[in-house]
Specification:
- The chain is 71% helix and 7% strand.
- It has helices at residues 2-81, 119-135; strands at 101-105, 108-112.
- The protein has a two-stranded antiparallel sheet.
Length: 136
């Protein structure tokens, strides 16, 4: 009977050791999950901050573009009131010329346009003219 109690005690001791090891593994896994969740949370916070900054920058750019358009419109109105010719290149209704290509060297400037009809042709011509202007 003493042998039976020893066997039971050894098995109970082995079981308790396995439970202890399993508890340690669960605790380690829990720490890993916690660390992963914390890293994910930090990444999400940083990303949200970046998105906020980007939105603010886009807002600023939009405001500046609007202000530039307003300024161009005002300049066009003032120029019209004194009978001065003026074009606003960002507004097709206020622009009667197109300059898709420029060739510049020192004080020499050559502009090429196809009247807004054939940009590919105007680009090819401006590239050819740039080659000539560079050799001058």
């Amino acid at each position: 009977m003493l042998v039976s109690f020893r066997g039971i005690a050894e098995k109970l001791n082995d079981t308790m050791l396995q439970i202890s090891e399993s508890s340690a593994q669960v605790a380690s896994g829990s720490d890993q999950v916690s660390n992963g969740a914390q890293a994910l949370s930090q990444g999400a916070t940083e990303q949200a901050s970046s998105v906020e900054e980007l939105a603010a920058t886009i807002n600023d750019i939009s405001e500046k573009v609007k202000q530039n358009a307003d300024n161009a419109q005002q300049a066009n109105t003032k120029a019209g009131s004194i009978s001065a010719e003026m074009n606003v290149s960002s507004d097709k209704s206020l622009c009667d010329f197109y300059f898709p290509g420029l060739a510049v060297k020192d004080d020499l400037v050559a502009g090429v346009t196809a009247g807004g009809m054939d940009h590919k042709r105007a680009r090819a011509a401006s590239e050819a003219i740039r080659g000539v202007v560079e050799r001058l």
